[in-house]
TrEMBL record:
The lineage of its organism: Bacteria, Bacillati, Actinomycetota, Actinomycetes, Kitasatosporales. Keywords: Endoplasmic reticulum, Glycosyltransferase, GPI-anchor biosynthesis, Membrane, Transferase, Transmembrane, Transmembrane helix. Pathway: Glycolipid biosynthesis; glycosylphosphatidylinositol-anchor biosynthesis. GO terms for cellular component: membrane. It is found in: Endoplasmic reticulum membrane. InterPro entries: PIG-V/Gpi18 (IPR007315). Its main location: endoplasmic reticulum. GO terms for molecular function: alpha-1,6-mannosyltransferase activity; GPI mannosyltransferase activity. It comes from Streptomyces himalayensis subsp. aureolus. It is a multi-pass membrane protein. The chain crosses the membrane at residues 84-109, 205-226, 266-287, 294-312, 318-337, 344-366. One of its GO terms (biological process) is GPI anchor biosynthetic process. This is Glycosyltransferase RgtA/B/C/D-like domain-containing protein.
Length: 370
């Protein structure tokens, strides 16, 4: 428990430093730190759902229709629950939910790291997650911390054979974000592999967990479909109104071509680098023979991110729940820390500087949706 406290303490320190740098920049630019963290971009949609329920739609140019039905219900339900119990505003409640979920996520991925590689790698994994270039999102009223928390503990439950917990947590992950289905895919794949290895002689809880896993995601998609009058395509029609669809990466490739040939703001080239790094890390994860559920979870998130259209600048945020991608880097840095401590300190220090500077730029300076 003491080692877990060290890992969580380092995570809190990383995020607290990031918030302090953001607060100083906000003060210098005449902006509100609370508004930047608790009432930015998608946060406003979630807070609207928490306060008024679903029903808001904005019409822009032909074919561009932004409906709040694109947003999954678990996070606004948690925010609404907090405001009903504690006298907080929606923004403050949203931050409380996100910060608590980020801590739960860090603890869950620490447990996964210990199970696979020991305390040193697990601590480095948690620290790296808190120092990603886009980890500022973990300090905002966004849904990624909630999804990552359920994902981490569901994967831990799979790895330790707790199938009912795995399925239940995967169902909750699926109710939190569209890409939350990646957790269910990991549980189902792991259950199928386990059943094949044992020639079908598996506990009943395995099949129950696999059946529970996709329920959260499927339930919301079907509910939106019935509400829109098309059970199978209604939700996906809502997403197309936002410009989001699965096009096998055609939109992403076209945007990359635009960046290379014409150039753009710093956010977009940085997004391209982060996504490319994620692909490389996934290859390293495969080479390290990571457990199947981690490969399926991270691979599904990566596939959805790379092959989906929509807001290109949001792709790094979509990869935040894919924490297993950091395992190869955590292993390498842990070995470096043992052999050459100063080298490891310099690398972590550089990552911290990049995280704080880029996170502050994203939220306080760049006029770009997250």
């Amino acid at each position: 428990m003491a080692t877990a406290a060290t890992a969580l303490g380092l995570f809190v320190a990383a995020r607290l430093c990031g918030v302090l740098v953001l607060a100083a920049t906000a003060h210098l630019t005449g902006k509100s730190t609370f508004a930047l963290l608790g009432r930015s971009w998608d946060s406003l949609w979630y807070l609207g759902i928490a306060t008024h329920g679903y029903g808001r739609t904005l019409h822009f140019e032909p074919g561009v229709i932004h409906s709040d039905l694109a947003f999954f219900p678990l996070y606004p339900a948690l925010v609404r629950t907090v405001t009903a119990v504690v006298p907080l505003s929606g923004g403050a409640a949203g931050l409380l939910v996100s910060w608590a979920a980020a801590m739960a996520a860090a603890w869950g991925m620490y447990r996964v790291g210990v199970l696979l590689h020991g305390h040193g790698v697990a601590t480095m994994l948690v620290l790296l997650w808190g120092l990603l270039p886009h980890s500022v999102v973990l300090s905002m009223a966004y849904t990624e911390p909630v999804l990552t928390a359920f994902a981490a503990w569901s994967l831990y439950a799979v790895l330790t054979g707790r199938w009912l917990w795995a399925g239940t947590l995967a169902a909750l992950a699926g109710a939190s974000r569209p890409n939350g289905f990646a957790v269910a895919a990991a549980v189902i794949a792991a259950a199928g592999w386990e059943a094949w290895k044992r020639r079908g002689r598996v506990p009943r809880t395995l099949w129950t967990g696999a059946a529970l896993a996709p329920l959260g995601w499927c339930a919301f998609v079907l509910w939106v479909g019935f509400r829109k009058g098309d059970p199978l395509d209604g939700y996906f029609a809502v997403q197309r109104g936002w410009g989001s669809r699965f096009d096998f990466g055609a939109d992403s490739l076209d945007f990359v071509r635009h960046l290379l040939l014409e150039g753009d703001r710093m956010v977009f080239p940085m997004t391209m680098v982060i996504v490319a790094a994620a692909v490389l890390l996934y290859a390293l994860l495969i080479a390290d023979h990571a457990p199947l559920p981690l490969l399926v979870h991270s691979g599904t998130l990566l596939l959805i991110t790379v092959a989906g259209s929509g807001f290109f600048e949001s792709k790094p945020r979509f990869l935040l729940p894919a924490f297993p991608l950091l395992l190869p880097l955590a292993c390498a840095l842990t070995r470096t820390a043992r052999a050459r401590p100063l080298h490891a300190v310099l690398v972590v220090g550089a990552l911290a500087g990049l995280s704080m500077a880029y996170g502050t730029y994203l939220v306080a300076i760049a006029d770009t949706p997250l």
